[in-house]
Amino acid sequence: MNASTTEGRIEIDGRIFNPFSHDFIRNPDPVWQVLLKDYPIAWHKDLQMWVVNTHALCEAMLKDNRFTPNYRMWEHAPPPTPEAEKNDFDRMTDHSLFMVTPQEHLRLRRLTLPAFSRPVMSKIDATIRSLIVDAFDQIGTPDAFDVYAELSTKLPVRSIARMVGVPIEHEKLFHKFSNSCVKATRINLPPKEREQAIQDSLEGFDYFKREIARRRALPHPGDDFLGSLISAREGDDSLSDWDIIAVISALITAGSDTAIDLYSYLVYALLSHPDQYARLKQHPELTENAIIEMLRWSAFGKLPFFRFASGDIEFAGQRIRKGEAILVNLTAAWHDPAKWERPNEVDIGRNLDGHLVFGAGAHFCIGTYLARTQATITLQEFIRRFPDAELAGGDGEIEYDYGHHNARRIIRLKVQTNLEAARKAA
Ligand code: HEM
What we know:
The chain is an alpha+beta fold. The protein has one domain: CATH 1.10.630.10. The chain contains 17 helices and 16 strands. The protein is globular, with a radius of gyration of 22 Å. The structure holds protoporphyrin IX containing FE (HEM). The site of protoporphyrin IX containing FE has 25 residues, from helix 12 and helix 16.
């Protein structure tokens, strides 16, 4: 028995759930099923955090404002930086969607809404399409290629750069900014490494401060994403420079790492289910549903989303103390048999009503449009160019980064295109 109870608190440890174990990373479903059946909620003694697993409890927690993603509420958070010592990274963090109060968060989401509207987003479509088509052109028509090297590592940051409107000549700077922002938000990084990442990000903040000032000085700041953020108004209220920079940083931190896995796992989910690949080729109208279903099945996060208790809270029969951390184990929830029939099967026609793939409540994913656009164009191009593709060697010669901090990151996935065989047969 690897679970225990202390003063009514259900406790588990790494023998029941070890998100870093190689077996779990390769095949997490058996562990999720144990958690879902026996431990809907439990205190994890090794991780020193609560783990909430079922679909119903994850949904309830995401919709409950008493639980905040603000890590400064964590009992082990480093002390806040004094005002006089703050750098631009600290200033951005003060305005971040993940850090502000629920009221301030609502204000930011309302003011950013026009920038995510259909007219602004549809302008982005064309630039994302050309980026993805270029990547496929560069792949060409080989016998085999590695999805991770050719798509997953090349496209996510560039897509966000295109969305935000960073010109090609500044893409290198944006890449450095993006990598350092992602690194600097990892609170478990050794302090020296984290400090270096923060220093590396500062040049990027200077770029955005200058660009926002330049746009503000124009008669009209522009109809693109950045221009829409600058001109957004609600009564007398508008977004400050730091509000805007914090939104851009949130897009980077929440959208670049997830999209790396999006590309690898879309191809993996599809090609490891040849019947579903054939079905999608016959029914392209299922594409949108297929994307959500493949994200649900892939569930590539291993420590998906965090919350911190803003007070002492009774939740699902457990007493969560102020400042305790909670892992909202959405990936387990996406495999909950109480919500999904045959949860470990891919069914691209599945009824996905009420899914939590993009979260729920106040912090619902702001990047769904970009994620869906990237995924749709990728699937269209993949199917058009490689209709007979299979996983090379049966499993894509798959390799994982077992040490990755929060994802079951695939770092090699080889696709056998079978183009030569098709040419010979024709
Ligand atoms: C594979 C695709 C993606 C998935 C599965 C996904 C999933 C999620 C989920 C579950 C949340 C809720 C987090 C929480 O409640 O703590 C979230 C939030 C968020 N996502 Fe995504 N996401 C994806 C892609 C993206 C992209 C491409 C972007 C950026 C362009 C993005 C930007 C964000 C932001 C900024 C938030 C925080 C919103 C807020 O706090 O108000 N996501 N995402």
